[in-house]
């Protein structure tokens, strides 16, 4: 089955710890994205990557970091510098030029 | 800058009744427009999209949307809702230009509740 997988589905961490969220796709898409979703605020773009070994900051990149070493993978690290990390995180991917984005099932991060 | 407004935060509709969700956008060029649906705790599923051509777009699950450039709107409709349509719906706008490639703006969402 082609698709986007995110793991884990639920993640709990203590305050001050870094945590890495996984996103993998087997759709052969060039572009990948990370969004944060909070109640009543829609989706906000954290980082995006249009090609391997390249990525750009989105609207709320502070306190987050990413890497894109492989086409299939785009992990997101939530660092201790992120002031309010508890949220639902969504990964998406899309083919170059079509602009349609397809989403993974999401990871709910809770920082205690 | 591009932006999307979904004026209705919450809509309650009876099963079998029609549904219309509003979406207004602001964008300098011809927009790419999308509607997504999200069930609780899940990712977003694409319902339909508009890039160009016929302004009435058919999607999955019996949904359709109409692009009206003069009103900067892309409203989503379904003639007869089913209990399984209860979910949150997001309108999104993106652009085909190099500068805005892949950068979507999402509305805040409309929560749809379906009553028996």
Could you characterize what this model shows?
The complex is a heterodimer of chains A (112) and B (116). Chain A is built from no helices and eleven strands. In chain A, the strands form two sheets. In chain A, strands 2, 4, 5, 6, 9, 10 and 11 form a seven-stranded mixed β-sheet that branches. The termini of chain A are far apart. Chain A has strands at residues 4-7, 10-13, 19-25, 31-37, 43-51, 54-57, 64-66, 76-78, 87-94, 102-103, 107-111. With 116 residues, chain B is mainly beta. Helix content of chain B is 0%, strand content 52%. Chain B has no helices and twelve strands. Chain B has strands spanning 3-5, 10-14, 19-21, 24-26, 31-38, 44-50, 56-58, 64-68, 73-78, 87-95, 105-106, 110-115. In chain B, the strands form three sheets. In chain B, strands 2, 5, 6, 10, 11 and 12 form a six-stranded mixed β-sheet that branches. Chain B has a four-stranded antiparallel β-sheet with strand order 3-9-8-7, with no helix packed on it. A two-stranded antiparallel ribbon of chain B has the order 1-4. In chain B, a hairpin with a 4-residue loop joins strand 8 and strand 9. The relative contact order of chain B is 0.33. The chains are: A mainly beta (112), B mainly beta (116). Chain A binds chain B through residues 4, 6, 31, 33, 40-45, 48, 50, 58, 88, 90, 92, 94, 99-106, 108, and chain B through 9, 32, 34, 36, 41-46, 49, 51, 90, 94-96, 101-104, 106-109.
